[in-house]
Specification:
Strand content: 15-25%
Shape: elongated
CATH architecture of the largest domain: 3-Layer(aba) Sandwich
CATH superfamily of the largest domain: Vaccinia Virus protein VP39
CATH topology of the largest domain: Rossmann fold
Structural class: alpha/beta
CATH class of the largest domain: Alpha Beta
Largest sheet: 9 strands, mixed
Distance between the termini: 37 Å
Number of helices: 17
């Protein structure tokens, strides 16, 4: 659809004017970021030809750009609807005049095109209203549902202690972020065969917090299309939102497609998007109880996914575990020391990473190097030994997502050690690893192959222990062989990748 035509395009000037006249902090607190017209037009283009009687749900309408773009796209189709109904929810009184004007323009357009129109603006909280409805036994009686749902839901963490959260929980809706609640409730309001297009953070694709949401979504919906934004800065650039967003199209039906269309663009240049068709089983792996969503786009990355199939071991097969560092520094502040003292043991932060090993103590920096060893801190420490550490946090723009280092007890003389909460650590039942196993594991994690693979299914900039548990690993013999190639420092990247090439030849690149 040409977003420069029609009455939708001027709404971008309204959006920019509204952003300029309102407080960004206030919009962030309620998770409100109005949708640019270019994105609204692209989202609307993803809807397939549907029924002749259309009912559109926009659960957080803002100025109405999403339902307006959807309506325009439907009317522009060769087989246009006979009637269109719109239900738009919005609680922000500041945008209400714009929303009412958009609804009237939709009415006028439909009248001029001979399409029956009925639009309702509900100045109600969508979640509270619908949560109460689905709790009513009458909701289970078949009735009019929506044929289309289009949404840009608010991005805001849920407070699990509120009455609303408890109401949702009693209905089986357990989520950690408001955007997932909006999507979940919108699914429940669709009729069989109804379509949804949404723009949301990518974070729902993996990790434990969204597991129940993914299970419900994949059970109810047939995922057809996912679009990725390669830059975190540009989808909502004039709102200064730094967020990995995706647009997805899905249909309420149990039958799953044979393949999913995955596309990617740098920003809003959708006509230049790279497009790849991926088998459904390549996006949602059969038998994966966590139902991670693997979003492959680059041919190189698809090759990395294929190459990883030569590693078939799990951490359980290797007798290994991975955990998050136990020391939360602000909670243990009174026990932290800038420099080692007689009653302290080493405290390891990401700043201690150096050439694939831990260099301790750090000569400079703001982070403390030690933690007191007392009865109050004993549960935060582990016995010294060889451990493999990974950084939990990185930015999308960093060259690497997975960064690993070996804690070598021969280089740090101490009976115990503390790992700060910004790290994950590999261990054997809470104890250290054989040296060659630790070195080989670190080399594997530092390979380009692993980093590319991890980015396929990681929907956020964190490297969580749960994500690392899902990774495939080489066999014990392979890891030991890799470990023998590591001395007192990790080889450079080119050498690491050459070693991995010998272990798992790449015939596709």
């Amino acid at each position: 659809m040409d977003t420069d035509a029609g009455f939708v395009h001027p709404l971008d000037r309204v959006r920019k004017s509204f952003n300029g006249s309102t407080n960004r902090t206030g919009r962030s607190e309620i998770g409100q970021f109005l949708t640019p017209v270019a994105i609204a037009g692209f989202m609307s283009s993803l809807f397939e030809t549907g029924p002749r009687q259309v009912r559109i749900l926009d659960p957080g309408a803002g100025t109405g750009v999403l339902f307006a773009a959807c309506l325009e796209a439907l009317i522009a189709k060769a087989e246009r609807p006979e009637s269109i109904g719109v239900v738009a929810y919005e609680t922000d009184s500041a945008v209400m005049p714009y929303l009412e004007e958009t609804m009237e323009k939709c009415r006028s357009l439909c009248e001029s095109e001979g399409v029956d129109f009925h639009g309702i603006i509900k100045a109600e909280d969508f979640v509270s209203t619908v949560a109460a409805e689905i709790d009513d036994p009458l909701f289970r009686i078949p009735g009019a549902r929506f044929t289309h749902a289009i949404l840009n839901p608010p991005y805001k963490k849920m407070n699990s202690r509120t009455a609303l959260s408890r109401m949702l929980y009693s209905s089986g809706i357990e989520v950690s972020n408001l955007y997932a609640v909006f999507v979940w409730l919108s699914m429940l309001l669709l009729e069989q065969g109804g379509q949804m297009v949404a723009i949301t953070p990518r974070s729902f694709c993996n990790g434990p917090y969204f597991k129940k949401f993914r299970a419900a979504f994949m059970r109810m919906m047939s995922l057809r299309r996912v679009h990725l934004f390669e830059s975190r800065k540009k989808a909502f650039g004039d709102d200064n939102v730094l967020q990995e967003n995706v647009v997805f199209h899905a249909v309420l039906e149990s039958q799953k497609p044979g393949s999913i269309l995955i596309s990617a663009s740098e920003a809003l240049d959708f006509d230049k998007a790279r497009v790849l068709t991926i088998p459904y089983s390549g996006v949602i792996h059969p038998g994966d109880r966590d139902m991670f969503v693997h979003l492959d786009i680059n041919e190189v990355e698809v090759c990395a996914s294929e190459r990883m199939k030569c590693f078939c071991s799990s951490l359980g097969d290797l007798g290994l575990c991975v955990s998050t560092g136990r020391v939360v520094d602000f909670r243990a502040r009174e026990h932290l020391r800038q420099t080692p003292q007689p009653d302290t043991v080493p405290l390891i932060y990401p700043c201690h990473f150096s050439n694939g090993f831990i260099k301790w103590p750090a000569d400079a920096g703001k982070k403390p190097n030690a933690i007191r060893m007392t009865s109050e801190t004993s549960d935060l420490l582990v016995a010294t030994g060889f451990y493999v550490l990974t950084k939990r946090f990185s930015s999308k723009e960093q060259r690497r997502r997975v960064m690993a280092a070996v804690f070598d007890p021969t280089q740090v003389d101490a009976p115990f050690v503390g790992f700060e909460n910004h790290l994950n650590y590999y261990h054997r039942d809470g104890k250290g690893l054989p040296s060659d196993l630790a070195k080989g594991l670190a080399l594997y994690l530092n390979s380009t192959m692993v980093d590319r693979y991890f980015r396929l299914f990681s929907g956020h900039t964190q490297v969580n222990a749960a994500d690392l548990r899902k990774m495939p690993y080489p066999s014990r013999d392979q890891i030991l062989r890799l470990g023998r190639a590591v001395g007192d420092a990790m080889p450079d990247q080119e050498t690491i990748d050459a070693i991995m090439e010998k272990e798992c030849p790449n015939h596709g690149e």
